[in-house]
Amino acid sequence: MQTIDEALDKLKKSDFRSRFHLKQKDIDYINEKGMDKIRSHAEDFVRTRLAPKYIPNDGKQTPMRGHPVFIAQHACACCCRGCLNKWYRVAKDKQLNEVEQQKIVNLLMAWIEREYNDYNSNKE
């Protein structure tokens, strides 16, 4: 089992995954809503779009923009069951339990917080 830091470091080495970054609109949304609300959204998105055993539109359920969590899902390879299987060996046909869902949310939030902090530190 890898740590969040190990997972994020591995993702940074991927040409595709490393292209995702929060934009000003995402930062503004985080500033408006706060990290607790963003975490709540992440929990909801993971529970409804990623955790079910069967997802009819798997591979297409996560937009590429429109919410910081969506960007994080693509950056962290948590956008669909195919990516979860490829990157984390999570079986495609298995309902994700609460612990598994929280691990995904924790990874997404760690990525968002790093991006948020990097964005704000580069602004100064």
From TrEMBL:
Protein species of origin: Ruminococcus bromii
Pfam families associated with the record: DUF4186
Protein name: DUF4186 domain-containing protein
Superkingdom of source: Bacteria
